[in-house]
Write a structure and sequence with these properties.
single chain, about 180 residues, alpha/beta, Rossmann fold, six-stranded parallel β-sheet, three-stranded antiparallel β-sheet, 5 helices, globular, flavoprotein, Flavodoxin, FMN, transport
C-alpha cells in the first residue's frame, strides 16, 4: 500500500486542526500530520502520496514569504529545498483563507504552494470547485476550480467538516487507496 504523508504550515493553529481532521477522515491510510518546520526534504520523499496544507496571511502570501512572520510556515522549508524533486509523487493541496477580509487575494498562499510544488515535478489530485465562495481574485484558481481544498474558517466554519469529508473521499479515490 502507498505511504501517505500529511504536512502543514500554520500561523494560528487552524491549518493544524484541518490537517488533523483530514488525517481522521483518511482513517488510518495516512501517517499523523507533521508540521513542515519539523521535517526535511528526505522525510517528504519517503512518502508516495502527499497532502500539503497552508494558511494564507495578510495580502495572500504564504506565511514567512516577504514578511517578518516567525510562525510555523512553509517559508524556511521552501528556501532550504529549492531543488526538491517530487517526480512521480501525487500531491493533494489544501489551504485556509478569509474571503471576506481578503477578497482580492483569497488563498493566494495556496496558489504559491501549488506553483512551487508543480516546479518540483509533482502530479496533482484534489482540485476543488469555486462554487460556494465569494471573492474577487485568487492565485489558487486554475480554470474554474481551486488547485486544492479551500477552507474559510473565519466566514464559513460550519462548512469545514463537510468540505473536508467530501474532499477526503475525492482524494482517497484519486490516490487509488
Amino acid at each position: 500500500m502507498a505511504k501517505v504523508g500529511i504536512f502543514f504550515g500554520t500561523d494560528t493553529g487552524s491549518t493544524r486542526k484541518i490537517a488533523k481532521m483530514i488525517y481522521q477522515k483518511l482513517g488510518g491510510a495516512a501517517d499523523k500530520p507533521l508540521n513542515i518546520n519539523r521535517v526535511d526534504a528526505a522525510t517528504i520523499k519517503e512518502y508516495d502520496l502527499l497532502v500539503l496544507g497552508t494558511p494564507t496571511l495578510g495580502e495572500g502570501e504564504l506565511p514567512g514569504l516577504d514578511t517578518e512572520c516567525e510562525a510555523e510556515s512553509w517559508a524556511e522549508f521552501l528556501d532550504a529545498n529549492e531543488s526538491l524533486d517530487l517526480s512521480g509523487k501525487k500531491v493533494a493541496l489544501f489551504g485556509l483563507g478569509d474571503q471576506v477580509g481578503y477578497p482580492d487575494e483569497f488563498v493566494d498562499g495556496l496558489g504559491e504552494l501549488y506553483d512551487y510544488i508543480a516546479d518540483c515535478g509533482a502530479d496533482f489530485v484534489g482540485r476543488w470547485p469555486t462554487e460556494g465562495y465569494s471573492f474577487n481574485s485568487s492565485e489558487a484558481v486554475d480554470g474554474d476550480e481551486f488547485v486544492g481544498l479551500v477552507i474559510d474558517k473565519d466566514n464559513q466554519a460550519s462548512m469545514s467538516e463537510e468540505r473536508v469529508a467530501h474532499w477526503v473521499e475525492q482524494i482517497y479515490a484519486e490516490f487509488a487507496l
